[in-house]
C-alpha cells in the first residue's frame, strides 16, 4: 500500500517542504501537513530531517540551493537559524526565533507561528485578545512566542512569570522589546512570588501555562495548586497537550474556568505555516479528526 500511495502522490513535479530538528522522529507535523496536502490535492510532500546545530548551516544552504518552498524548524535550531536567513517577520525579530521558513525565489524569510497558533486557538473559543490582560507563566520558546504575538495582536497588559533559572535574562530582553516596540504593557515577575501571581491572575482575563510543568517528567504537577487563585470565567490555556488534561486544567475546570490544552495551538501553528507556503487554508477540522 505504501508503494502505491507514494507513486501516485510523488512525481517529478512534487515540491519538498522540510522539517529540521533533533530529535525529530516523534513529530506529528509530517502527518499533519501530508494529510492536508493530500486533502487539498496540493503537489507537495513534507519530510522530517535530523539536523542539529552542527549541520544547520549546510542544511539551510542546501534548502536554498534545491529551491525548496520552505521548511519548519524545531529544537535545537529555532534561534540559531536566524543568522542564516535573509529576512524575519516582526514576531520572529522580537522573539529572536523561527519555526517556519519560506523561500521566495532564493530569499529566505523566517516566521514564528507558535504564538499565532495560540491566538487562533483562543479565537476558536470566542476570545478576542484585543484589550485583554494575560498572566503568562514561562518564558521559554513557547512563552516568548505567545508574549510577542499577544502584544502584536493588541493585548492590553501581560504579567509574565518565570522562575529564577537560565531563561530569566532573555525574558528581561523580551519584556523590554515588547514595551518599546508595541502598545502593550509587559511586566516580568518571579514565579516564586505567589502573592504577586495570585494578584495578577485575579485581574487577568487569560492565564497561560507555557512551562514544562504538567508534562512528563513533571506530569501530575501544577504551578497552581490552590484553586482560590483562579476565578470562574478565567480562560486557562495550557500549552501542554500530552496529557490532554493536565493537573492545572483539572484544577481550573473545578474552579469554573474555561480550559484549553495545547492541541489547538499545535494545530494552528501548523496551519499558519501551511498558509505561508501554499497560500491555502489548512483543512483544520479534517486534520483534527485525523490527529486528535
Ligand atoms: P523551553 O525549554 O524553551 O522552556 C521551558 C520553560 O519552562 C521555561 O520558562 C522554564 O523556566 C520553565 N520551567 C521548566 N521547568 C520548570 C519548573 N519545574 N517550574 C517552573 N518552571 C519551569 O520549552 P518550550 O518549548 O517553551 O515548551 C514549554 C511547554 O510548552 C512544554 O510543555 C511544551 O510541550 C509546550 N509547547 C507546546 C506547543 C504547542 O504547540 N502546544 C508548542 C511549543 C511548546
From TrEMBL:
Q: Which residues form the SDH C-terminal domain?
A: 262-291
**Gene3D superfamilies, per this entry?**
Leucine Dehydrogenase, chain A, domain 1, NAD(P)-binding Rossmann-like Domain
Question: What molecular function does GO assign, one term?
Answer: NADP binding
What are its GO biological-process terms? amino acid biosynthetic process; aromatic amino acid family biosynthetic process; chorismate biosynthetic process; shikimate metabolic process
- Tell me its EC number(s), please: 1.1.1.25
The protein's annotated pathway: Aromatic compound metabolism; 3,4-dihydroxybenzoate biosynthesis; 3-dehydroquinate from D-quinate (NAD(+) route); Metabolic intermediate biosynthesis; chorismate biosynthesis; chorismate from D-erythrose 4-phosphate and phosphoenolpyruvate: step 4/7
What positions does the entry give for NADP(+) binding?
Answer: 90, 239, 262
Pfam families named among the record's database cross-references: SDH_C, Shikimate_dh_N
Q: Which residues form the Shikimate dehydrogenase substrate binding N-terminal domain?
A: 19-101
Which HAMAP family does this entry report, sorted A to Z? Shikimate_DH_AroE (MF_00222)
**Can you name this protein?**
Shikimate dehydrogenase (NADP(+))
**Native organism:** Calorimonas adulescens
Q: What is the lineage of its organism?
A: Bacteria, Bacillati, Bacillota, Clostridia, Thermoanaerobacterales
